[in-house]
Amino acid sequence: MAANTILVLPGCRSLCSSGRVSDGSTQPNFTQRTKVTSANILKFHSSFKGDVISFGLSNFNRQSIRDHQTYGRSWKVSQIKAVTTDLPVLTFPTFLPPDVELLREPVAREMAARIQHVPVQTSLTPNPIMTSCVIPKKTTSSVAVMLLHGFDSSLLEWRHSYPVLEDAGVETWAMDILGWGFSNAEGVKSYNVAAKREHMYEFWKNYVKKPMILVGPSLGGAAAIDFAVTHPEAVAKLVLVDAQGYTEGVGEMATLPKLLAYMGVAFLKSVPLRLYANTLIFTKASFDFLLDSMRVGRLHCLMPGWADATVSFMMSGGYNVTASIPQVQQETLIIWGERDTIVPKTFAEKFVADLPKASLKFIKDCGHIPHVEKPKEFSSILKEFYLQGQNLEGEEGLQTGQSIV
Predict the structure, then answer these.
(1) Which GO terms describe its cellular component (predicted)?
(2) CB neighbours of 370 closer than 8 A, spacing ≥ 6?
């Protein structure tokens, strides 16, 4: 058996460095034993130097799983299963939370290792905001693609699609919206819509420096609409992905007493909520995928100042872009997961009706975030939109004959 292989055994209640398993009825003399929880498994595996780790799934993360069921979704363990966890050694930026080491998806780890801080000077603070982003390996002489993320998320949301786009030669940028992700925004007084917009504009002006195809998923779609209407010179085309645009602000959350707002934000960071949210977002996913998606999705919540920034955004009222939608003059592509239960596809059709220059592409058997669930299909659609009407000649430009899928 290969080193660092995990055996998943029903009924096991402990981790053991000797490779033997306790079924709860016997008490062998293990050199190291610990209760089975998701955190302990990861810590144990990270420090384990032997060949095999054995543990069982029946008591795995008891807060989230009871009798192999997680919030209505069944998980069945009918046989011993070997899961290889050999991962390449990567060096992560020191500004990321230590829990980045717990990520298991190779694409998530690789993208996290590429995140960097660049200074962005704004009117929001005397000092530059150290802004987290992933910059392209190559640039073209034409437009760039800029990937935003959704509410309370980070650029790691693009871990599956970013490398597919980049491998096709698309000049692809990803940045964290102010107040979320991994930027260091110490000293910012408000994380309202105007602050997020200014920060995004200054990043574009100082680093991208060319018209963008701006891609906004979920609440990032509202951010993209707001930016495209305010700064049309920066946006060549717009892509809305299962976007929010017809929900006015954050609703009653804007009027919550601050103490209750902080309590709500603390719950937003919780493992059970994040795991449950993933069961709603993805149509078909293994438990391992959902678990690592939860780790990726809450990593930015461990950054200093995250709670303050999120509460500030909530108290500001959030995005209200319904009236701005007909003002969007850029050609707009709408990409929608056909089985989205978070923002139903009727909203996609409403966008088509209200936007002056819109086209719509559905992705079958897909939920709310197709760039994670169906990255090849999503990236193929986006690449085609990127190529339309462009002169992409140049030493490092995208070659039209390249295939993305």
Answers:
(1) chloroplast envelope
(2) 241, 242, 335, 336, 337, 363, 377, 378
Q: Is 63 exposed, middle or buried (0-12, 13-18, 19+ CB in 10 A)?
A: exposed
Q: In which residue are the tokens 């603070």 written?
A: 125
- CB 203, CB 122: distance < 8 Å: no
CATH class of 98-387: alpha beta
For the ranges 133-147, 154-168, 320-334, 366-380, the lowest mean pLDDT is seen at 133-147
Distance CA 163, CA 45 (A): 28
Q: Show which residues are catalytic.
A: 218, 340, 368
Q: d(Cα 117, Cα 120) in Å, to the nearest integer?
A: 9
Quick one: how far is CA 212 from the chain centroid?
21
181: left (phi over 0), alpha (psi -120 to 50) or beta: left
Cβ contacts of 89 within 8 Å, gap of 6 or more: none
In the chain, where are the structural domains located? 5-84, 98-387
- pLDDT tops 70 at residue 3: no
Instruction: Give dist(CA 119, CA 44) in Å, integer.
Output: 37
Query: Tokens standing for 352?
Result: 């088509």
Mean pLDDT across 330-355 = 95
CA distance 183 to 205: 18
